[in-house]
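INFO  loader      accepted 1 record
INFO  loader      residues=388
INFO  predictor   begin
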Amino acid sequence: MEPVFLAAVQELEQRKPVAVATVVRTSGSTPQKPGAKLLVRADGSGVGTLGGGCVEGDIWFAAQQLMKRGGAAQMRDYQLNEDLAAQDGLVCGGTMYFLIDPIRQQEAAGYLEFSKEVVEAYRGGKPVAIANLMAAPPDSGLQVGAKMLVRENGSLSGTLGDQRLDAQAATRARSLMALGKNEYLTRDDGAECFIEAFTTPPTLLAVGGGHVSKALAAVALSAGFRLFVIDDRPEFANPQRFPEADVVKAGEYETTLKSLPINANTFIVIATRGHRYDDAALAAAMDTPASYVGLLGSQRKTILIYEELLQKGWPMERVRAVNAPIGLNLGARTPEEIAISIMAEILAFRLGGDGRPMKLREELLQRISQNMRRRADRQKRQPAALHN
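INFO  predictor   done
INFO  writer      dumping tokens
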């Protein structure tokens, strides 16, 4: 979402109004998930997407009207029924909830400050989060669209209008910052808020520049990850071998790992050329704030390295957190296939998936079959009913 916030900074610094539409909640099958954004400029142009189609067109138009006619932020929901789907060739059956947020002169200073801090977070600064009030308790006086910026150190800018709600939202926001996630918070009193956390883009750190890391680079970049590569051999860690990498360093693994900007949104894959290098590199990786560390290799090698780590005093809880052998069981053999299995596991870890097939369950297939039989029976009876 960095381009949306960059565009907001550019427009607001020129004292031009914008409207920002955000997917804040979904249910069922939808073309975009919470956090998707569209910024609409005063001239009608836009940055970002809400999934395309007629729904995006309607939200785009509504955003323009809010800027022109005035009015506060508003919530809208769209049920992607058969009529909407038919217009765009979609096969979705869910509901999307949007916040349409006009940013005019009176709101510009606060939103500009928030946007600048989000852009800084994307570029390596401290993570931040924005809490947006989506629904207010009856007679509370709270304003839908109120915003609060939460920083990693706990400091706040803005308010949702209620101290207790501010504190609760801030606590949840800090728990989301590490991986830049979002959450829809609902309270018993009717207050609802959407919390978005922003941090650096996810980074894949390949420790070892061999065949698997070379294949892994292409898959990681296609998934939107930054790429760091290190190896103790200059011929395997250089810009010619990894021209697409953000950082390529040759040097001793432990020292080089310590020199890199690693945070919780970093995913480390240990794939060196041998057991003794894996051992040292893994120990160094476990000593970083990376939320994911994986080791390429067989179960036997994993067991041997785990035993060595435990003998050196590493607690079992930390050893257990290592993903080894790395990757999902796809039956992969080639470096390219192994790279896909590794990135699949990393994406499941980062996004909260379980890695299971999404094939329809048998009970759903049975229900489809029953519905088809009922439909056929009704069609058979219909001519007789018309004749009578």
